């Protein structure tokens, strides 16, 4: 384990990424725990309202992300300074993305249905960074054996092909599939060969004169959403808390 950690995390310079991801996840978990306690009226935590103005945690998040980001650029990938900046950036990014829905809608939708977007973005971001972190990059490792060089070259080719399929999946309106398809084998291919979502660029371009294909796409989206929407929302509620009922 220690050898793998050094060869694939430390030597390629991915230790700051590991620290940033860890602090990002912890920042989100701690923040959601505190906001849920505030919502339930439990514990010592209260909203910060100087002068009657509610200060959302996206504000210190932006400050920390800015400090950590510029600090990381200035310090490079190695050294204590880089590690500290990575932690600062991760904490800030966790605070910012926890309120991503507020930024997107320019409204306080934290505990509404629209607020689910924040949880979705955080989970997707953490998953993608984890995949990049645990994957073996084809660059950055010294003194490779011939076998290691060959395997990393094949990995690079695989990532390039996956990226191509992911672009097609993205054009077909499958954003999650496209993002995961870059680093997960065959995911992008599955999204690329299946029917496009009816409102996607692909559907508007290629299904315009194919009513049967468009009808099949509509039926597939309906069945998919009916099967998975409730389950996805249950997981989101477990992670971030259930939205407030509409008044």
Task: Quickly list its features.
247 residues; membrane; transmembrane; mainly alpha; 70% helix; transmembrane helix; Integral membrane protein
Task: List the SSEs and their pairings.
Elements: H1 2-10, H2 15-40, H3 58-75, H4 80-98, H5 100-105, H6 116-134, H7 146-171, H8 175-181, H9 187-193, H10 201-206, H11 211-240
Structure write-up:
The protein is mainly α and 247 residues long. It has a domain at 1-135. Helix content is 70%, strand content 0%. The chain is flat and about 60 Å long.
Summarize the model shown.
The protein has 247 residues and is mainly alpha-helical. It has helices spanning 2-10, 15-40, 58-75, 80-98, 100-105, 116-134, 146-171, 175-181, 187-193, 201-206, 211-240. The chain has 11 helices and no strands.
Total helical elements:
11
Helix content: over 70%
H-E string: HHHHHHHHHHH
Distance between the termini: 53 Å
Helical/strand content category = mainly alpha
**Total number of beta strands:** 0
Instruction: Let me know the largest β-sheet.
Output: none
Residue-averaged pLDDT, rounded?
83
The gross shape turns out to be: flat
């Amino acid at each position: 384990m220690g050898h793998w950690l050094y060869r694939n995390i430390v030597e390629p310079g991915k230790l700051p990424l590991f620290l940033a991801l860890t602090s990002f996840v912890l920042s989100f978990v701690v923040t959601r725990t505190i906001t849920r306690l505030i919502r339930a009226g439990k514990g010592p935590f209260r909203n910060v309202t100087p002068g009657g103005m509610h200060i959302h945690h996206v504000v210190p998040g932006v400050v920390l992300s800015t400090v950590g980001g510029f600090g990381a650029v200035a310090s490079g990938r190695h050294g204590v300074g880089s590690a500290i900046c990575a932690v600062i950036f991760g904490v800030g990014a966790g605070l910012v993305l926890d309120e991503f829905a507020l930024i997107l809608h320019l409204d306080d939708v934290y505990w509404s249905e629209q607020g689910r977007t924040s949880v979705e973005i955080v989970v997707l971001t953490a998953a993608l960074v984890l995949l990049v972190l645990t994957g073996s990059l084809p660059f950055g490792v010294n003194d490779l054996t011939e076998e290691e060089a060959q395997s990393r070259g094949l990995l690079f080719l695989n990532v390039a092909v996956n990226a191509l399929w992911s672009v097609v999946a993205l054009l077909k309106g499958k954003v999650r599939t496209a993002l995961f398809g870059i680093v997960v084998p065959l995911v992008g291919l599955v999204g690329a060969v299946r029917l496009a979502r009816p409102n996607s660029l692909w559907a508007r371009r290629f299904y315009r004169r194919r009513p049967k294909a468009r009808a099949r796409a509509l039926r597939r989206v309906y069945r998919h959403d009916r099967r998975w929407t409730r389950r996805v929302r249950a997981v989101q509620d477990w992670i971030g808390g259930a939205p407030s009922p509409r008044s």
